[in-house]
Amino acid sequence: REMPENTASEKIFAWLPGRPAAATGETGQAEDRDGPIGSVELGSADDGMTAFESGASLYFRSSQRAADRWIPALTESMGLGFAGRYNDGDVRGEIETFVSHPGNLT
Question: What is the distance of C-alpha 94 from the center of its chain?
């Protein structure tokens, strides 16, 4: 719950799978999907959690605090420190967060 509450995104997106195919595998999960994944914009973390608890997967940016900490650290560790910040010192990049259920395909 903390991650969607602290996102730097203006909206949280819920991804809803297409209609499940009739055949299921050993796990009981649908082996294939007939339709494309649908995306719905949500306005709050509460809406996102409701969608997730109903089977949707969520997509949103990390908190700005996480991006400010990890983007420069990652780019520096890869020897690409120049790519982690703009000329004015602001962090350059974002961390995309996907919250899914087992068996999810995107």
Answer: 12
Residue whose structure tokens are 């050993």: 26
User: Tell me, what amino acid is at 94?
Assistant: E
Supply 42's token pair: 């949500």
Which token pair is 79?
A: 């020897």
Q: What's the whole-model pTM score?
A: 0.71
Question: What are residue 19's phi and psi, to 5 degrees?
Answer: -60, 130
One DSSP character per residue, the chain reads -HHHHT-SSSSEEEEE--PBPS-B-TTSSBS-BSSPPEEEEESSHHHHHHHHHTT-EEEEE--HHHHHHHHHHHHHHTT-GGGSB-TTS-B----EEEE--TT---
Tens digits of residue pLDDT in 66-76:
999 999 999 99
